[in-house]
């Protein structure tokens, strides 16, 4: 097993303002996780290329891209209530969006068996028209759209604790991209009801699994086994992209879900086997407790390369499987 680790020092230079939770130190915490994972011989580290404008325009309006470019030239500015940038943010965002494209090329060239994009700013809240929720460009959507353009079938599984509203928005009408999100409800941005199942020709290709505060890995495992796994199997993707936010960790300050690093390791192990070899790419999204970010990354990396690693044990109890039963009923499984 070889893990391609894509990261760039310029991704540290993006700053969204003083005391903003999506801060440069997050990337150092994730790098520490790679170190702590014990995976050394199994890892290839590389700097990604910047995304090109036409690759962004597959998922974003020209106005969104122009706004980010204009603000970078002006030295920075605000994109929405929670999202701001500095002069360095454009380059960071271009590299963050380019990482997944490089990951795909490397996996196709058999240079690695799996890939982790350790980048910021994150992406999954950015809609077609609006940078929001700490996200400038939608990194995972850019990669999904590039794969889609090559005729691939793409499944996106998003286990960041917040709903991936941007990714959902971009692919809601697309039957060739399956979007599955597990997220705390109620929580920012408020979307992602279980009844949101896609639109038009894409009806059924969106699966939302809102979980209540206090949910543990036990509920997530039930959801993976009874809904996520069967939905992905039925869709039969050729590629699987994972929005890996670690803000569902029990110590995260922005949410109330009770996951552990061990849970995250189980999630990626489970998801990885839903597609063929060398067809899964992991994207860093949220995660705002630095220590939890390190531990979760270490556990996930170990999970991706099949290494034994001492992680916090998976969590159990404390939540109701009614949510899963209800969702399963809606999705007719
Ligand atoms: Zn999040």
Account of the 3D structure:
The chain is an alpha/beta fold and 333 residues long. The protein has one domain (3-330): Arginase, Chain A, CATH 3.40.800. The protein has ten helices and ten strands. The chain has helices at 25-36, 53-56, 62-73, 89-108, 139-149, 165-171, 217-235, 261-272, 290-304, 322-330, and strands spanning 3-6, 43-46, 76-80, 83-86, 114-117, 154-158, 177-184, 206-211, 239-244, 280-284. The strands form two sheets. Strands 2-1-5-10-9-6-7-8 form an eight-stranded parallel β-sheet, with helices on both faces. The protein has a two-stranded antiparallel sheet with strand order 3-4. Helix 7 (217-235) runs parallel beside helix 8, helix 7 runs parallel beside helix 10 and helix 8 (261-272) runs parallel beside helix 9. It is globular and about 50 Å long. Zinc ion is lined by residues 160-162, 245, 247, 285-286.
Concise overview:
The protein has 333 residues and is of the alpha/beta class. The chain has 10 helices and 10 strands. Helix 6 links the parallel strand 6 and strand 7.
């Amino acid at each position: 097993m070889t893990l391609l680790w894509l990261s760039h020092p310029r991704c540290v230079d993006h700053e969204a303002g003083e005391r903003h939770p999506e801060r440069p130190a997050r990337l150092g915490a994730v790098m520490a996780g790679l170190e702590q994972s014990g995976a050394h011989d199994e890892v290839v580290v590389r700097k990604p290329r910047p995304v090109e404008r036409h690759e962004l325009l597959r998922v974003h309006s020209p106005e969104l891209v122009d706004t980010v470019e204009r603000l970078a030239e002006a030295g920075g500015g605000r994109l929405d209530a929670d999202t701001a940038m500095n002069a360095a943010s454009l380059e960071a965002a271009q590299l963050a969006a380019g990482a997944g494209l490089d990951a795909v090329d490397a996996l196709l060239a058999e240079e690695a068996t799996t890939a982790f994009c350790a980048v910021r700013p994150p992406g999954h809240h950015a809609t077609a028209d609006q940078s929001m929720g700490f996200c400038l460009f939608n990194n995972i959507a850019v990669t999904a759209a590039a794969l889609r353009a090559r005729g691939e079938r793409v499944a996106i599984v998003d286990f960041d604790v917040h709903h991936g509203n941007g990714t959902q928005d971009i692919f809601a009408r697309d039957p060739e991209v399956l979007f599955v999100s597990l997220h705390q409800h109620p929580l920012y941005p408020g979307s992602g009801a279980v009844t949101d199942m896609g639109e038009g020709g894409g009806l059924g290709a969106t699966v939302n699994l809102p979980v209540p505060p206090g949910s543990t890995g036990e509920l997530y495992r039930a959801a993976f086994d009874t809904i996520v796994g069967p939905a992905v199997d039925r869709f039969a993707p050729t590629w699987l992209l994972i929005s890996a936010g670690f803000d569902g960790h029990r110590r995260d300050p922005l949410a109330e879900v009770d996951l552990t690093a061990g849970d995250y390791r189980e999630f990626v192990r489970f998801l990885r086997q839903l597609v063929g070899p060398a067809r899964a790419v992991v994207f860093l999204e949220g995660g705002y407790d630095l220590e939890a970010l390190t531990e979760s990354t270490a556990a996930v990396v170990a999970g991706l390369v099949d290494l034994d690693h001492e992680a916090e044990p998976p969590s159990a109890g404390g939540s109701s499987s009614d949510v899963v039963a209800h969702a399963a009923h809606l999705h007719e499984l």
